[in-house]
Amino acid sequence: MRSDSVPVRELEDVALPRAQGGSSPQHLLVTLLGDYWIRQDGDLPSAGLIDLLAEFEVSASSARAALNRLLRRGLVDIRKAGRQTFYRLSHQVVERVVEGGRRIASFGLPTDWDGQWTIVAFSIPENRRESRHLLRSRLSWFGFAPLYDALWVSATSTAADARAVLAALDITSATVFTATAETTVDRSPLSAWDLDALASVYTTFLAETRPLLDAVLAGRVAPRQALIARTRLMDTYRRFPGTDPGLPSAHMPEGWPREEARALFTEVYNALGPLAESRVKQIMGAHDAEAARRARFQSVEQLRDRPATEEGTPA
Prior knowledge:
- This protein has twelve helices and seven strands.
- The longest helix is centred in the C-terminal third of the chain and has 28 residues, at about 260-285.
- With about 325 residues, the protein is α+β, with helices and mostly antiparallel strands.
- The strands form two sheets. The protein has a four-stranded antiparallel beta sheet with strand order 5-6-4-7, covered by helices on one side. Strands 1-3-2 form a three-stranded antiparallel beta sheet.
- It is globular, with a radius of gyration of 21 Å.
- It has a domain at about 115-190: Alpha-Beta Plaits (2-Layer Sandwich).
- Helix 3 crosses helix 10, helix 8 crosses helix 10 (about 260-285) and helix 9 (about 225-235) crosses helix 10.
- This is Transcriptional regulator, PaaX family.
């Protein structure tokens, strides 16, 4: 480690956005695999993945448990060779990671809006409580918010998005339609979001991320610190697309901080990429030189422009 690098504890206390509730080892594994080995033919040794999670203070036993849970859920594929075990993301998860990355990386770009809101009204019986929870969670991911308990609105997602969610959860007691704000309901659809609270979260993000930018531009961030910082930065920023209405700035309160947050996130995330990649290669190289060689960080631009399927990748 360079003598002028910032101590890890100092970075955690001063120059990192706070982890919003933290990441489970399972989520962290999927994030790391998606960050550095997305859509690659090779798999990765379990020992290397366990050491990679150790960077985030995940114990070996917790890391093994996370791998086993991901396997049981069908989110990773497994291969055994003698006494060694290798993993890779399942194709289904790869496409979800690609979709999520593209959505996060596109969030905040200038867009036109036709004034139409997509509205989902649903009624789910108590004996399908879990389906109700999953529906709300998935609608939130697509940028919907509850105007009323069972009436959700979005300005950025389409009726097709909503119908796909309903179909995936086998929910038929729902209606999807589009309308302008004047013809929807008594309340403004924007009232589905707590804009004051969201603006405060943006402000905190900006204040906590600027010191990290200063540190990385000054060359005071070591590879291990960069890996931790970059992963936590994504974990924090990825929540904004599900909490911001996504309307063009002209339709938002004056001085809405989304564009500033996006610009800062992009600069810091990209700047940390090469350093984080070098640490990933170092960790994985102790177990599998080929897997280490294949590790590649993805810039925000690469995440945004990555196609739904790539040539040579099964659809």
